[in-house]
Amino acid sequence: MSGSLVLDSKMAAPTRRKDHHTLMSDSKTARTEDPSRRRRSHHDDEELVHFRIVRFMMESGIKLRMTSVPMATAAIIYHRFFSVCRLQDFDPYLIGMTAISLASKVEEEHLKIRDVINVCYRTRHKDKPPLESQTELADLRQAMASCELLIMRVLGFNVTKELPHKYLLHYLKSLGDWMDASVWNRTPIRDTAWAMLRDLYHGKVCLQHKAQHIAVAVLYFSLLCYGIEVPLNNQAETEWWKVFSDDISEEQIKNIIEQIMDVYDLEKRL
């Protein structure tokens, strides 16, 4: 990491794994999930940790009544941070909780910090009583403030990224008008596409492709799952996916689908 992104030790203290308090990740969990402690040297091990953290973020977001766009933004902020920083250096639960709060500000769906802390704490520690100590609450609030500044600096104060949601909404509407109404209405293509889009944020595929390409791939995959073909596609001069995004190839679509399937494979390995 370049010198311009390094905070002083006092500012970074609440997020460093080696000396952060244990309100979000208790000592037992830290030993379990820290790659350096368990000698995890493979990329797959870190992917499993990230999957688990994003699932925690999604569960917390649902409880906080966040809509899909802020939740997606939170996941992207989290993944971008750990694309730069090492997992073993930071408490991923604290980074995830802070990403939720930051995303709510970015997408102007503001949440109270106290609500974010309480919900995330209860989601993380289901077997513990609610957080009542004002000292512990103040500690987490301070940790989040320091963590938010750290994330902002690591990401160069650029925490926005174009999302596939608006494109998928448009593509579904257009394809629905194109398809036979009876086939479209009895097949849950829309619900499947939105579910896939939500699920893919558990992995880093959301960082690796253009928003339009992800939307096309999700729609292609949904149609493939139900064996639905777009009418007259084989006879048309331009494939239906190129109508939506003229710079994407079928090979790129299949590559994105493989990455989505890899995310689902992670869930089986938890």
UniProtKB/TrEMBL annotation:
It holds the Pfam family Cyclin_N. The keyword Cell inner membrane does not apply. InterPro entries: Cyclin-like_dom, Cyclin-like_sf, Cyclin-Q_first_cyclin_box, Cyclin-Q_second_cyclin_box, Cyclin/Ssn8, Cyclin_N. GO terms for biological process: regulation of transcription by RNA polymerase II. Coiled coil: none annotated. This is Cyclin-Q. Residues 55-153, 166-262 form the Cyclin-like domain. Keywords: Cyclin. Residues 28-44 have a biased composition (Basic and acidic residues). Residues 1-44 are annotated as: Disordered. GO terms for molecular function: cyclin-dependent protein serine/threonine kinase regulator activity. Belongs to the cyclin family. Cyclin-like FAM58 subfamily. The keyword Signal does not apply.
